[in-house]
């Protein structure tokens, strides 16, 4: 049961990461459209939104998947060295 919950949580986080990345990509399309129209303030806001969304997708994946994994390995190695 716990394994199923962990899998669902991992899947849900992956969906959020992908959604943030796609949302960021849409902001970059918006940026291009705003630049084409000469709407520079809108383009600046769209670029900022795009960068924020893509950074969120990248760092969410990095801190969740990689950060916890290494932290767990450190605990195991410290337990083994204390024996």
Structural summary, described in words:
The chain has helices at 2-37, 40-82. The protein is rod-shaped and about 55 Å long. It is built from 2 helices and no strands.
Describe this structure in a few short sentences.
The protein is mainly alpha-helical.
Q: By helix and strand content, what is the structural category?
A: mainly alpha
Question: In DSSP terms, counting alpha (H) and pi (I) runs of 4 or more, how many helices?
Answer: 2
Number of strands: 0
Shape: rod-shaped
Key structural traits:
mainly alpha, 2 helices, 83 residues, rod-shaped
List the helices and strands and how they pair.
Blueprint: H1 2-37, H2 40-82
